[in-house]
Amino acid sequence: MYDNLIEALRRNATGEALATARALVATHPQDPQAHRWLAAALQQNGEPDAALASIDQAIALAPEDANLHVAHAGLLVGARQDEAARSALARASGLDPNQFDAYAMQAQLALGRGDLDEAERLSRLAARVAPEHPQLAAIDGMLALRRGNGDDALKIVSAALQREPEDTQLRYALGFIYMGKGLWAFAEQAFRGLLEKTPAAASLRPLIADLVRRQGRPAEAADELAPLLDEPRTATPALQRFAGQLRLNAGQPGRALPLLLQALSQLPADRGTLAALVEIGRVPALQAQARDALEAALATHPQTVGLWQARLAMEPLGEAGRTLLERWVAQMPGSIEALSAQMNLHARLGESAAAEALAHRILELDPDEGIAQVYLLDQLLAKEPQAAIERIEAWSARATEPARQHALLGWLGQAQDRAGLRAEALATWLRFHASAAPGRAPLPPTSVPPKQWPALGEMPSQPAMTLFLWGAPGSGVERLAAVMGAAAEPFRGDRFGATPPRDGLQDYAVVDALASGRVTGEVVARQWRETLPARGIANGHVFDWLPWWDNALLLALRPHLREGMLMIAVRDPRDMLLEWLAFGSAMPFAMPTPARAAGWLAIVLNQVASLVEEQWYPNRVVRTDLIENDPQAAADALAEAMQLKWPAPASTGPLRFPAGHWREYAQELAEPFAMLTPVAMRLGYPEN
Q1: Quick one: pLDDT at residue 85?
Q2: Residue 571, SS3?
Q3: Are residues 221 and 280 located together in one domain of the fold?
Q4: Are residues 259 and 231 in the same domain?
Q5: Which is nearest to 322 in space by CA: 301, 302, 339, 346?
Q6: What is the DSSP annotation of 540-564?
Q7: CA separation, residue 413 to residues 180, 311, 388, 533, 663 (Å)
Q8: Domain total for the chain?
Q9: Bridge-partner residues for 623, per DSSP?
Q10: SS3 sequence, 584-632?
Q11: In which domain, by residue range, is 507 found?
Q12: CA distances (Å), 216 to each of 243, 245, 481, 500, in order?
C-alpha cells in the first residue's frame, strides 16, 4: 500500500509523494503508517510544522509503536526545533551550516523511509563538514542500529554523549538503541531523562509506559498514561485502548472496562479494543456490561464485522449462539465472515449437511475462500480422496498467488496420502518444502559433548518453578504446548511469535559460542533471567517452550540453572521425519533433503538419549505417539510426566498421522529411515 509513496520519496518526487500521501490519509484516516509517510512527505516538501503535526497524529493512533517515535525524533532533528541542536550548530565555527543541515536532513529522511544506503552516503558527506557534530553521531548510531549492529550503535552515541552530555537528539538515539538491544530498563531511564528536560514532549509517555510494561509492571505502565488520559486533547481512543489493555494485563478488569468502552465509542471496529472486551466478558461480574456495550455498538454500526465476531465470542455454543448468528447473517447476508461462522457452528454441532450447504454458498461468493474449501476437503478426504485430489488440482490451476499455491500443495499431499499414492505424496511434500525454503530458518548446529560437563550447581533455597519444553520437528511437542498454553501462567510460547525474547536460548549461534568458550554459561543464564520481566514473568516461575535444543546448553543450565527441568516430547523418530515432511514444524526450519534431515534428527535425538541415560540434567520424557488428536490424552501424558494435574484444552491442533504411519513409506524413504532406526531402537522403539 505504501510502495509507490516510498518510491516517490526515494526519487525526491516531492509533489507526487505528497499527493499520494494525502490521498492515503484521506482513505485510511485511522492508519498510523499513512500519517507517518505523510509526515515524511511534508518534511521533504519543506513543511516541518505540518510534518510534526502529522507524526503526532500517527503516534496518537498507535502510541506504543516505537518506530513512530523514532520517526518523530528524526523530524525533530530536521525541523531544527531542539535548542541543543541549534546551539551545537552555532558552536560549529567555520562550517557551512546550510550545507551540513541539508545533508543531515536528507539523511534523516532516508532513515525514515528505510533507505539505509542513501542515509550512509549522506552521512559521509555531512562528516566532511562536521565530523564531530552530535547530530551526525545520532544519525550514524541509528543507522548502525537499523542494520542490526546494536553494540556499534551504542559505542557511537555513548562517545558523542561524553562530548555533548546534554544533547537531546543523542539522548533520543540512546533510548532507541537500548530498545533495539532489548535493554528495557536502560531505555526507560533514557526517555525519562528526556521527558524531565522537555516536559512538552508528552508523546514520550506512551513509549515509557510500553517499556515499563515490557519489564512486567503493567499497572505502573497504566499509571504513566494518567496525565495524557486526563487531557481531552491527548486522550485518544488508541491511548484509551492501550491503557485498558495494561489494566487488563495487571489483573484490573474493572479499571480497564471504562477505558475500553471510551475507545469503543469512537473506534467500534478496533480489533485490539474488541479483543480486550471479549477477555473482560469472561469475568462474571463484568460480563453483562461488556455484552451490553457490544450490543449498543451493533445498534449503531450493524455492518461492522469485528463487532459481530466479538459479540459471538461471548456466547456459548447452542441456541444462543445460533440465534446471534442468524441475526448477523440477516443483517449481512453476503458476508463471508458471517456465513463462515455459521458454517463452523453447524460443523461443531455435528450438523454436517447444513455446514456443507453453507460451504458451497460461501464458495459461490468467493471460489478461493480457504475456510470453506478446507471444510469440503475434510469431508472429501474421509470419503473420496481421489475427488479431493481433483478438486485441489482444479483450485491450483487458477491460483496465482505464491502463498495460495504453497497452501494448496500441502493439501494435495494430504489427499494423495489418503488415496494411498505414497510416491506422489512424497513428491508433493518435497515440492512444498522447496517452495518454502527461502523464508525458513536453517537447521540449528549440533555440538560434540565436552570431555567433562561442569558440575551441577547448588539448588537455590527457594527455587523458582522453571521448566523448559522442547521437542524435535514432528515430535508433537505443540500438543503439549497447547495443554500448557490453555492453562496460561506461567507458560510462555513467545519464542515462536513475532517478538521473541533476545537471549541465548533463542539464538542458536550460542551453540558454538558456548562450545568454544567465547561465551560463558553464566552470561547465557543471566541474560535469560534478565529477559523474564519483559516477558511478563515477575516471580521467576516460567515454563519456557524452546524452539531448538543442543546439549551445549547444558554448559549454562547445569551450573547456573540447577532448579530447571527439561521436558522432552518424543515419538518414533521415523514418524517424526514423516510428520515433518507432511506438516512442517512448530519452528519453521527449512527441510533439506529427507536424508540430510534424517541425519540431523539422528544427531539431535542421540544427544537427547545421552542426556536421559546419563541424567546430565533433570528431565522428563513425554511420549506423544498415542496422543494423536485427543486433548485429554495430551493432558494425561503431561500430568503423568510432571505429577501435576492438567486440564484438557478444547483442542490440541489439527489431525496428524497415527503412530506407525511411517511404515506406509518404508520403500519411498528407505534410506532416511535406515539412518533413524538405530536411534529409534535406542529410544525404545522396534526395529521394524
Answers
A1: 33
A2: coil
A3: no
A4: no
A5: 346
A6: S-EEEE-S---GGGHHHHHHH-TTE
A7: 41, 37, 11, 43, 17
A8: 3
A9: 570
A10: CCCCCECCCCHHHHHHHHHHHHHHHHHHHHHCCCCEEEEECCCCCCCHH
A11: 466-682
A12: 15, 13, 22, 15
**Single-letter code of the amino acid located at 413:** G
| Closest to 282 (Cα-Cα) out of 317, 305, 315 | 315
Single-letter code of the amino acid located at 313? A
Q: Give residue 76's pLDDT.
A: 65
Mean pLDDT of the chain: 86
Question: Which residues are registered as beta bridge partners of 441?
Answer: 589
Query: Is the whole model's pTM more than 0.90, yes or no?
Result: no
- Which one of 245, 261, 276 terminates a domain? 245
For position 578, what pLDDT does the model report? Answer: 97
Would you say 333 and 361 are in contact if contact means Cβ atoms under 8 Å apart?
no
Cell of residue 112, nine digits: 525514515
Is residue 109 located within the same domain as residue 175? yes
Distance between CA 132 and CA 140 in Å, rounded? 11
Find, among 209, 178, 174, 182, the residue nearest to 64 by Cα: 209
> DSSP assignment, residue 661?
G
Place of cell 523511509: 113
Q: What percent of the chain has pLDDT over 70?
A: 93
What is the pLDDT, as a whole number, of residue 462?
A: 87
pLDDT at residue 665 greater than cutoff 70: yes
Tens digit of pLDDT for each residue in 406-416? Answer: 888 888 998 99
pLDDT digits (tens, 9 = 90+) for 176-206: 888 888 788 899 998 998 888 777 667 788 8
Cis peptide before 594, with omega less than 30 degrees from 0?
no
Dihedral sign for Cα atoms in the order 265, 270, 274, 276: negative
Whether 306 maps to a domain, the answer reads: yes
State whether 193 and 295 are in the same domain: no
Q: Is residue 124 in a domain?
A: yes
pLDDT digits (tens, 9 = 90+) for 75-105: 665 554 433 333 333 333 233 445 676 677 7
Q: Both 240 and 268 in a single domain?
A: no
Give a yes or no: residue 523 inside a domain.
yes
